[in-house]
């Protein structure tokens, strides 16, 4: 099968178009013929080697963390899916590889594709929607009437997180550029901070939750908008010791993450708020709940551009510019 893969970690390196064997189908797996795959900044970070300490992949590695397609075969113990089912998923982190013609995934990580989405739209959803769900619903336990600041509201995670938070009944603020103010307003944002004109930390106060996907400066400024007892949850780091424990990292890696996050954890304590790092995980059950929200019209994906499969490198380069509104997708089939 045709795949886009890396042979070694290289910052900014091109993915190689190659031929790879079809993946092995385990007894709890579904084999999916890939119709479309979402492209994420995570793909670039894996290629660059940023996660080689915490995600020890064997090279060569097929990249790709989002998929929509059709089930073509199932393992003998699979009960939830059959050939012909249209599905979507974020594969488990140890089994990524959606920049390809086929992928095998554990059925626990897979959900039925929303009936009201195209394959390309569906492929844009899993990673960012699961991230938003795991931050806002699981980690933050966001409630109706609470206030949440979602940074980078026009990005992949931001566009979904805004809609999920509004569905829950929260008051939502976001940061974005002048060009994307209308986009985030149309998603339901209550307070828009144009970062080219205003400093969010001087405008907002008394927030319950901040979802950070940006750098160190934004992370530290976010402490000022939270009320005592508030939660600062970052998906862009730095990783903390709790994440290291959950990830099964050894003692040395736990100590490294303790040091990396020491500054922000100390400052959080001083502001009487909690800091945590979240690296989303595959979860077909949660994705099934997200499917229900999409089919009910509570959440709609925002897709910026669809590239043909052979232009996967161009798609990844476009994601890296940081200018995409919502998600970028490659059409595989």
Brief account:
The chain is α/β, with parallel strands linked by helices.
Note the topology.
Elements lengths: L1 E5 L9 E4 L9 E11 L1 H8 L12 E2 L4 E8 L11 E4 L12 E5 L3 E3 L6 H5 L2 H14 L7 E4 L5 H13 L2 E6 L4 H6 L4 E4 L5 H4 L3 E6 L3 H7 L3 E9 L6 H6 L4 H10 L1 H9 L3 E4 L6 H12 L7 E6 L3 H9 L6 E5 L2
Parallel strand pairs: 9-10, 9-12, 10-11, 12-13, 13-14, 15-16
Antiparallel strand pairs: 1-2, 1-4, 3-5, 3-7, 3-16, 5-6, 6-8
What features would you describe in this structure?
- The protein contains twelve helices and 16 strands.
- The two termini are 12 Å apart.
- Strands 3, 5, 6, 7, 8, 15 and 16 form a seven-stranded mixed beta sheet that branches. A six-stranded parallel beta sheet has the order 11-10-9-12-13-14, with helices on both faces. A three-stranded antiparallel beta sheet has the order 2-1-4, with no helix packed on it.
- The chain folds into two domains: 2-125 and 301-331, Quinone Oxidoreductase, Chain A, domain 1 (Alpha-Beta Complex); 127-277, NAD(P)-binding Rossmann-like Domain (Rossmann fold).
- By secondary structure, the chain is an alpha/beta fold.
- Helix 3 (126-139) crosses helix 4.
- It has helices spanning 41-48, 119-123, 126-139, 156-168, 181-186, 200-203, 216-222, 241-246, 251-260, 262-270, 284-295, 312-320, and strands at 2-6, 16-19, 29-39, 61-62, 67-74, 86-89, 102-106, 110-112, 147-150, 171-176, 191-194, 207-212, 226-234, 274-277, 303-308, 327-331.
- Strand 12, helix 7 and strand 13 form a beta-alpha-beta unit.
């Amino acid at each position: 099968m045709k795949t886009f893969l890396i042979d070694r970690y290289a910052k900014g390196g091109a993915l190689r178009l190659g031929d790879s064997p079809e993946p092995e189908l385990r007894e709890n797996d579904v084999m999916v013929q890939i119709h479309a795959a979402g492209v994420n900044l995570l793909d670039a970070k894996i290629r660059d080697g940023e996660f080689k300490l915490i995600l020890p992949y064997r090279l060569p590695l097929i990249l790709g963390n989002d998929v929509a397609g059709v089930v073509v075969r199932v393992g003998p113990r699979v009960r939830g899916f059959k050939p012909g089912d249209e599905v979507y998923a974020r594969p488990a982190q140890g089994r990524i590889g959606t920049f390809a013609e086929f992928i095998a995934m554990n059925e626990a990580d897979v959900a039925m594709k929303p009936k009201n989405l195209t394959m390309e739209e569906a492929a844009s959803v899993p990673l960012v929607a699961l991230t938003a769900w795991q931050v806002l619903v699981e980690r933050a336990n966001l409630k109706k009437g609470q206030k949440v600041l979602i940074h980078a509201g026009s990005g992949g995670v931001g566009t979904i997180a805004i809609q999920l938070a509004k569905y829950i009944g929260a008051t939502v603020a976001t940061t974005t550029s002048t060009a994307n103010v209308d986009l985030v307003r149309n998603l339901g944002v209550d307070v828009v901070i144009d970062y080219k004109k205003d400093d969010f930390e001087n405008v907002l106060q008394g927030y319950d939750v901040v979802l950070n996907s940006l750098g160190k400066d934004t992370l530290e400024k976010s402490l000022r908008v939270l009320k005592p007892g508030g939660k600062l949850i970052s998906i862009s780091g730095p990783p903390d010791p709790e994440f290291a424990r959950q990830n099964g990292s050894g003692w040395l890696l736990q100590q490294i993450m303790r040091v990396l996050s020491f500054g922000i954890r100390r400052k959080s304590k001083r502001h009487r708020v909690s800091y945590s790092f979240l690296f989303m995980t595959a979860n077909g059950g949660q994705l099934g709940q997200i499917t229900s929200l999409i089919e009910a019209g509570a959440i709609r994906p925002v897709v910026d551009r669809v590239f043909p499969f052979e232009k996967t490198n161009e798609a990844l380069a476009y994601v890296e510019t940081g200018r995409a509104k919502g998600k970028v997708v490659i059409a595989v089939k």
